Amino acid sequence: xxxxxxxxxxVHEDLPDLVADRPDVDIPAEEWELRVQLTSDTCIVxxxxxxxxxxxxxxxxxxxxxxxxxxxxxxxxxxFYQYLDNFESEKVGPFFGWLCTRLSxxxxxxxxxxxxxxxxxxxxxxxxxLEPTDHPxxxxxxxxxxLEKALEIVHHSLPPKHLK
Length: 164
Prior knowledge:
Blueprint: E1 3-4, E2 11-12, E3 18-19, H1 32-35, E4 36-38, E5 42-45, E6 49-58, E7 67-75, H2 77-85, E8 95-98, E9 114-118, E10 127-130, H3 136-143, H4 147-157
Parallel strand pairs: 3-7
Antiparallel strand pairs: 1-2, 4-5, 5-6, 6-7, 8-9, 9-10
């Protein structure tokens, strides 16, 4: 499925992963710069709330790789700093976290789903495992989806200017 990369602007032929640039936190836009410290992998709000970026992988039936949602999950302060101190190691965690990303494709809100964060080290973003529930996203992660559904999610989620 051809698409134009949001960051690079180049046309790609494979199935894209979807990326959340920042967590969904209830901060007025005019206060964002004062209250939020955001990097490509971490977010601290008011020095009280801590989030890290990770990947929810959804198996695709009869396809060579999983479909990825690049999302944010909350972490307790001590777990957040343990992760930062051991970023290159998979020997930290796993830790509990709340999903802090709304995925608009799903009719039931994804914000605050329970997760387990599995650290992989080697500069890889953590693998996010959803708690087994009847939520459609959790079911998709456990059961996998068709390639057609993955394409439907991409078409729903990417701005039309990025679809070729």
